[in-house]
Amino acid sequence: MSTAEKEIQRRRTFGIISHPDAGKTTLTEKLLLFGGAIQEAGAVKSNKIKKTATSDFMEIERQRGISVATSVMGFEYQGKKINILDTPGHQDFAEDTYRTLTAVDSVIVVIDVAKGVEAQTEKLVEVCRMRNTPIIVFINKLDREGQDAFDLLDEIEQKLGLTICPLSWPIGMGQRFKGVYNLWEKKMQLYTEVQKQKIAESIAIEDVEDPQVAELVGEEAAETLVEELSLLQGVYDDFNHQSYLEGNQSPVFFGSALNNFGVQELLNCFVDIAPTPQNKDANGLLVKPEDPYFSGFIFKIHANMDPKHRDRLAFVKIVSGVFKRNTNYKHCRLGKNMKFSSPTAFMASKKSVVEEAYPGDIVGLHDTGNFRIGDSLSEGPELEFKGIPSFSPEHFRFINNADPLKAKQLNKGIDQLMDEGVAQLFTLEQNNRKIIGTVGALQYEVIQYRLEHEYGAKCSYENYPAYKACWIETEDQEQLKEFSRLKARYLARDKFDRLVFLADSSFSLNMAKEKFDNIKFHFKSEF
Ligand code: G4P
């Protein structure tokens, strides 16, 4: 096997997703602890933009600073190179998370045992399912009282549309929580007061009917365990690695991230089963990690913290070949060659200049405004990687120039912030007025603040009462002409010049759908 092949085989690049507060940050931190990447808990914690959507901009700036460092956390575990891609928990930044999910090869979903499947989990899992991303589920906070395990698994199957396969099973819960039986390794891990927050030793138990189990957890709990495991066998299929890799079956683990409980089991199984870097579709061409030429795509852009230097960090996921420092690669959209003298690699929360990187790795490139989210770099054929969709925003506002002398700065600022993916820009067909669409209200404040501080431009907003943005698809030019005539006021172009209908209500959208039956209306830009 060549060096490149070996490096590809040992890469595991994934993301952790959850509804805020389920324990994503805690789990990330514990995985890093087990991987020896950090020495103490608390290192990742500070990355969180708190749910109390702060309007304190210094705080937002500080958070942005930290989140560059923790955007990608790489570490070595059992000979594998693991890259965790951080996804913002705050729902106003959901769009960021969707894009990051295009760069992962698998995900771990964290669910709070008491709260079950929550709204944000549903949305994020849906995005993963669109791409058949392999999913492992971690049910967290077993040290607290929560839902019955069987009920919870039912809920997960129904609400998330997953076919699951428990690979560990809880023995009690909350006050009565005794531990978990690990079906993957056939081991039992006991949870005791004394062992809280420590790494509990596992005991090998081949057969749960072994009398040793009753000695360890008590007669009653042992009986329940035997019963529940036999029930499980009746209800769920055995684990099938291929089904998991195809996104058709999701293993489930139980534990408590805060107490380091069940985390190592999760990690051990993860390195065994999680996929190596995957093929990626680029306009019909399937690019494989082992292809000889380097290729990659930008999934995230981070603006510099220092407003005086407007350079940014563009995050590239390497899809194929070997990325090398100071080597010419084609920027496919601009059709020009570029080379990078100080590409950055991420190990734990440290950054360093990297000479070479392999498929699955993320490299940070310094950018002075050449990159846009979704751009492709290639050493071989011209590529346009598929799969960075935009979703209809929830909020829409006109953006106006509040300082006529700074029109140029304003336009440049808006352009660059949109390239970064902070929000979406729509330009009305009728009068060229600009509308900013966002997922959450917080973004408007961020944009206003950054335009002023980084570009010296001032803006004001004005409400635009739209319900949804719908991307239009049709081959029926006659209908499109009639539709455009009738709905001229509501038509706009997105940043890629695609036609978008800004429906003002669900009623008018439904009317339009009925009347123009040859036009498809999509709530996302990829179809
Ligand atoms: P998030 O990134 O998904 O938003 O969640 P995060 O890890 O921040 O966890 C949310 C809260 O849940 C935190 O408490 C955290 O300590 C707690 N938590 C995480 N895992 C467990 C667990 O296994 N058991 C229990 N009982 N709690 C858990 P917090 O009070 O919001 O934060 P902190 O003050 O403890 O840092």
SSE layout and pairings?
Elements: H1 3-9, E1 11-18, H2 24-34, H3 57-69, E2 72-77, E3 80-85, H4 94-100, E4 106-112, H5 119-130, E5 135-140, H6 149-160, E6 164-166, E7 168-171, E8 179-182, E9 187-190, E10 202-204, H7 211-217, H8 219-235, H9 241-245, E11 250-254, H10 263-273, E12 280-282, E13 285-287, E14 295-303, E15 312-320, E16 323-324, E17 329-331, E18 336-338, E19 344-347, E20 350-353, E21 356-357, E22 362-367, E23 376-378, E24 395-401, H11 407-420, E25 424-428, E26 434-438, H12 442-455, E27 459-463, E28 468-473, H13 477-486, E29 491-493, E30 499-503, H14 506-515, E31 520-522
Parallel strand pairs: 1-3, 1-4, 4-5, 5-11, 6-11
Antiparallel strand pairs: 2-3, 7-8, 8-9, 9-10, 12-13, 14-15, 14-23, 15-22, 16-21, 17-18, 17-23, 19-20, 24-26, 24-27, 25-26, 25-29, 28-30, 28-31, 29-30
Q: How would you portray this structure in words?
A:
The protein has 527 residues and is of the alpha+beta class. The protein has three domains: 271 residues, P-loop containing nucleotide triphosphate hydrolases (Rossmann fold, 3-Layer(aba) Sandwich), CATH 3.40.50; 99 residues, Rossmann fold (3-Layer(aba) Sandwich), CATH 3.40.50.300; 128 residues, Peptide chain release factor 3, domain III (Alpha-Beta Plaits, 2-Layer Sandwich). The protein contains 14 helices and 31 strands. Strands 27-24-26-25-29-30-28-31 form an eight-stranded antiparallel β-sheet. The protein has a seven-stranded mixed β-sheet with strand order 2-3-1-4-5-11-6, with helices on both faces. A hairpin with a 5-residue loop joins strand 29 and strand 30. Helix 7 packs across helix 8 and helix 11 crosses helix 12. The radius of gyration is 25 Å and the shape is globular. The protein starts with a helix and ends in a 5-residue tail after the last strand. The structure holds guanosine-5',3'-tetraphosphate (G4P). The site of guanosine-5',3'-tetraphosphate (G4P) has 17 residues, from helix 2.
